[in-house]
Amino acid sequence: RKVPLEEKHELVRKYNQIVMGHEKIQTTRVGYEDTFIRRYYVNTEGTEIVEERVYSGVRMVATAVDGTNVQISFDSVGGTQGWNSVLGLEDIAERVCKEAVEMLKAEPVEAGVYTVVVDPQLAGVFAHEAFGHLSEADHIYENERIREIMKLGTRFGVDELSIVDDGTIKGERGYYPYDDEGVPSQRTYLIKNGILVGRLHSRETAYKMGEEPTGNARAINFAYPPIVRMSCTFIEPGDKTFEELTDIERGIYAIGAYGGQTELEMFTFSARRGYLIEKGKITKLLKNVVLTGNVFETLRNIDAIGNDLKLYGGLGGCGKGGQFPLPVSDGAPHIRIRNVVIGGK
Question: How many helices and strands in the chain, by DSSP H and E?
């Protein structure tokens, strides 16, 4: 809050100049955002919590044009570290520019079933959107079919697969010391060593299901009731190097999350870009890489997990029950998935 407005303007102008750094870039958009929140929580149990939070972040978008070929690249960075979290992002601005221009030469992916190596950002979106929402106890309690599928003790993947929701990681956009029912945030294993071991709870859902609250009751502000929400949801790292993951005869390397949708256990996600993998080598640049499948089958088809965990926050957030945007984080290491349906030409 102490940083002058002109200094914030200057930072945005500097990043925008970098994003504009190629003749094929036709339009750019760079934005800075910060929010200061002071939260008061009081209940009839005698609890009184006063907490201050600062969220800040930068968003960068570049549009490259070559005739009728239009390609967009973007990224955003954000967290709870204040002004320092948005400094030194010149390399990201350069990458946004470079990727938009490179995608002008990308070839459409050929539709088929592939072994896919998924980068940490897209794998994190998968963990959040495809599995994390299914782990929210209000969804489970209200849907008999999901309740049957999401039985604790069910095996969903290989021993190396663990998925966590953790609101205690300071600096991450999904960090908070207490939820909006006064329950301390915590580290909750959803899947541990391939087995479903937990889910996310408010006080209400924990009572209904005979389990313990997990500190996941959150509201975007005082005008909304707390409901079950994620914090920082991620796949824990394994022991494989990137070279080991890509050591396959033929497949696709899918990078970044461009968008997607889920319907119960079914999902569709668009990668920002992709590469063909041939005999362990990353070769042809690809566009229109769309992954489709069933989340439970996909979890079972994860056969290798990288050692390079990365967490992402950025601007925006998660939406649920008319409450948007809620600050969250997600992430993963690189992961490899067999038998993925890829849409394309």
Answer: 8, 21
